[in-house]
Design a protein that fits this description.
globular, alpha/beta, two-stranded antiparallel sheet, about 15% strand, Alkaline Phosphatase, subunit A
């Protein structure tokens, strides 16, 4: 006789309870209304420190830091989408805003803690003492899997952090990371002197050790074994050729720009190789001394960061488009929070979580340049608020991931996006 385990029993009970509380037509409507896009990959660009929406994608009337008059730091310019403006230093992106949607009304309740806000924008949740939630990247690869066996599902170009990790999903859904664009992950690069024959001998010895042990059903050990197997597949020269950026035309490499641009170029090559989710960090503090966290004098050279992002991301959009990959690749730009319109005593800006901008591009969405509306100072939301769970649900929907479903931490059901609802207007045909 069939005897369901506790997880199956809980899931079945929840489904039965929902069925009892809803009429049949409501259940049918919910199933029919599940939004599904056609994206296959994600390139997630992380602006560590807190990009000021009022100085980038949600510009307002100029302020004056010397007079402590709130407002934008820069002038605004028109874009390819009528009625949508961006900061004057986003001139290249302005030309392709018809392939972009700046979601101007993202919000959460974390204000003055970078680590907590970074966690929120990677996991979609508050930090919990009982659950280690998975990152968006891990959620995506858990639901969609590898594109092919010859590429890792999840790559981080930048420094590792627990907020990017798989949480309760397990090591199998973690990331590979690299900090240099010219070479692959250190753990996958063979040491000098390790020839193919020597590597083959090592793998044979490892295989004999595996065959000599007893089988196990311990989930952590099985996850570790899967990671080892994947690493062996990816440590050879075939996958590592993806990091040879010198094979790209010089003109294209120059169009992408400096180090951050080369990271974006590598992300396109990783998409071509079959990587499902790539995070690219842009928190290069040497450009202005503070990165995107522009307190005090850090704001003086903020334009250099904006211009570098503009150059790299606009080139990434057009490059993907030329290679017929833009509709398959969702570009996401996020930051832990925004900045208020007021200037601090040093002429810079503090933190603001009540209203800030995140950006979506490509991915087969019906873009409109901007979504949501804030007040005249980009401080309060006027129309179409988008919580972090809603933003995550939009990304999931673009990838045809069921944003209504539950994941399980042991036997505990965990809503995949904390019950977020996608921006349905971006899926209009």
């Amino acid at each position: 006789m069939y005897n369901p385990n506790r997880r199956q029993f809980l899931a079945a009970s929840a489904a039965a309870g929902g069925a009892l509380s809803l009429p049949n037509f409501a259940l049918a409507t919910e199933q029919q209304s599940l939004l599904q896009g056609k994206a296959e990959h994600v390139i997630s660009i992380w602006l560590g420190g807190g990009m000021g929406q009022i100085d980038t994608f949600d510009p307002k009337a100029k302020g004056d830091p010397k007079a402590r008059k709130p407002g934008a730091y820069y002038d605004s310019i028109d874009t390819a989408v009528e009625g949508v403006q961006v900061c004057e230093h986003l001139g290249n992106l302005a030309k392709v805003m018809d392939r972009v949607t700046a979601v101007r009304t993202v919000n959460h309740d974390v204000i003055d803690e970078h680590a907590a806000a970074t966690n929120r924008m990677h996991t979609g949740r508050s930090i919990s003492g009982t659950v280690t939630y998975p990152s968006l990247g891990s959620l995506v690869v858990h639901e969609r899997g590898s594109v092919n066996d010859g590429a890792p599902p999840y790559v981080l170009i930048g420094y590792p952090n627990v907020t990017r990790g798989p949480g309760f999903l397990g090591a199998k859904y973690g990331y590979l990371y690299l900090t240099e664009t010219g070479r692959g992950p250190a753990g996958l690069s063979r040491a000098d002197g390790i020839t193919n024959s020597r590597q083959n001998r090592r793998e044979k010895f490892l295989s004999s050790l595996r065959n000599s042990r007893r089988s196990t059903e311990v989930e952590q050990l099985l996850d570790y074994e899967a990671v080892v197997q994947q690493s062996l597949k990816l440590s050879g020269p075939e996958f590592n050729r993806v990091f040879q950026l010198e094979g790209e035309p010089d003109d294209l490499r120059n169009r992408y720009g400096g180090e951050f641009g080369q990271r974006c170029l590598l992300s396109r090559r990783l998409v071509e190789r079959g990587v499902r989710f790539i995070e690219v960090s842009h928190n290069l503090n040497f450009l202005n001394g503070s990165g995107w966290d522009v307190h005090n004098s850090g704001i003086v050279n903020q334009h250099k960061l904006i211009q570098e992002m503009d150059t790299a991301v606009s080139t990434l959009i057009t490059d993907l488009e030329e290679k017929r990959l833009l509709d398959k690749t969702l570009i996401v730009i996020t930051s832990e929070f925004g900045r208020p319109p007021e200037f601090d005593s040093g002429g810079g800006r503090g933190h603001q979580g009540s209203a800030f901008s995140c950006v979506l591009a490509g991915g087969g969405l019906s873009h409109r340049g901007a979504w949501g509306e804030t007040d005249e100072l980009s401080k309060k939301i006027v129309a179409n608020p988008v919580g972090v769970p809603d933003f995550f649900a939009t990304i999931c929907a673009a990838l045809s991931i069921d944003y209504h479903k539950n994941l399980f931490d042991g036997d505990r059901p965990v809503p995949i996006t904390d019950r977020g609802q996608p921006i349905s207007e971006l899926f209009a045909s």
